Amino acid sequence: MGHHHHHHHIDSTTGKIKTAFFLNFFFTIIELIGGLLTNSMAILSDALHDLGDSLSLGLAWFLQKFSRKEQSDHFSFGYRRFSLLAALINSVVLIVGSIFILTEAVPRVLNPEQPNAGGMIALSILGILVNGAAVFRLKGGDSMNQKVMTWHLLEDVLGWVAVLGVSIVMLFFDVPILDPIASIGITLFILYNVVKNLIQTMRLFLEGVPSGVDLEGLSRKINNLTDVQSTHHTHLWSMDGENHAFSTHIVVRAEATKEEICKVKEEVKEILHPISLEHITLEIEYEDEPCSLQ
Question: I need a surface site. Which of 71, 112, 218, 233 has the fewest CB within 10 A?
Answer without folding.
Answer: 71
